[in-house]
Design brief:
Elements (H helix, E strand, L loop, with lengths): L23 H8 L41 H46 L5 E10 L12 E10 L4 E5 L4 E6 L2 E6 L4 E3 L3 E10 L7 H13 L2 E15 L2 E2 L3 E11 L8 E11 L2
Antiparallel strand pairs: 1-2, 2-7, 3-6, 3-8, 4-5, 4-8, 8-9, 8-10, 10-11
């Protein structure tokens, strides 16, 4: 008796579909179908995962140090070497400025104290008398005039004396032409003192132009012959027991005389004063 042969099903077996296990929410829904479903909220963005084989290390921000890139490494090194030098220069300049400010403050303070203690006043000068000889205008030849000038010097300071040093000069001019020259005597003038002295001025072989000679003749005829006297005197002031450095006293006087003789009288006069401290 022959066996019955059944045809073999060659189709591949169907793969069973694996379902994920139900979530807690689905189980609750299955057990309690009447309960309302929760509304799904907005899903937060998931952080980007690093590629496989990498590690993520978290470091506090205050412990992160920046390193210059390789192309700026040489520049960074050069600037780093320069920084201490600049700081040193700035420090030196600051010290120097501070020292100068302190020095100027002390000098100003000392000057203010000296002024308040001694109350310095400028000396004043005036021309008291002029005697003239040797100014012969009748001849066309050179002249050698002489002037004896009486000067009154007043020192109004109560606590300061004046030393008149060597190197002074007194010149007499007429219309820009130097007629005679001389110097002041060397002496010491006490505080709060008036000193009157005579200085002799001489000129030698002075050639007068026709214009200057004519102006002098016209001045004599009018009784107003103009002259300018320029006095320069190096002095030292005695403040207490201390002498100052040399200071040049400058006096410029414009005056007129009525005639060119020993008995000449001064018609008008006016003097300007000044000092050169250095």
């Amino acid at each position: 008796m022959a066996d019955r042969v059944h045809p073999r099903d060659d189709s591949p077996p169907q793969a069973t579909e694996l379902k994920p296990p139900p979530s807690q929410e689905e189980e609750d829904q299955a057990h309690h179908p009447e309960s309302p479903k929760k509304l799904a909220g907005p899903q937060s963005e998931k952080p980007v995962q690093p590629p496989p084989g990498t590690y993520v290390i978290q470091i506090p921000k205050d412990q992160v140090y920046r390193v210059p890139p390789p192309e700026n490494a040489q520049r960074f090194e050069r600037l780093s070497r320069r920084k201490p030098r600049r700081s040193h220069c700035c420090c030196c300049i600051c010290w120097l400025l501070s020292f100068l400010a302190a020095f100027l403050f002390l000098v100003g303070l000392a000057a203010a104290i000296l002024y308040l203690v001694f109350r310095p006043e400028s000396p004043d000068y005036s021309i008291e008398r002029v005697s003239i000889s040797g100014l012969n205008l009748t001849s066309s030849g050179p002249i050698s005039p002489e002037f004896n000038v009486t000067v009154r010097a007043n020192n109004p300071n109560n606590k300061i004396g004046i030393y008149y040093e060597k190197g002074s000069s007194v010149n007499v001019y007429n219309d820009g032409v130097k007629m005679a020259t001389g110097s002041l005597p060397v002496f010491y003038q006490e505080k709060n003192n008036v000193t009157v002295f005579v200085t002799s001025l001489k000129g030698s072989a002075i050639e007068l132009t026709s214009g200057v000679r004519t102006a002098l003749v016209n001045g004599v005829s009018k009784g107003t012959v103009p002259f300018n006297l320029a006095l320069r005197a190096p002095v030292k002031f005695k403040v207490g027991s201390v002498k100052t450095w040399k200071i040049t006293v400058k006096v410029d006087c414009d005056l007129t005389v009525d005639k060119l003789t020993a008995s000449a009288k001064i018609g008008s006069k006016g003097c300007d004063y000044g000092v050169d401290l250095w």
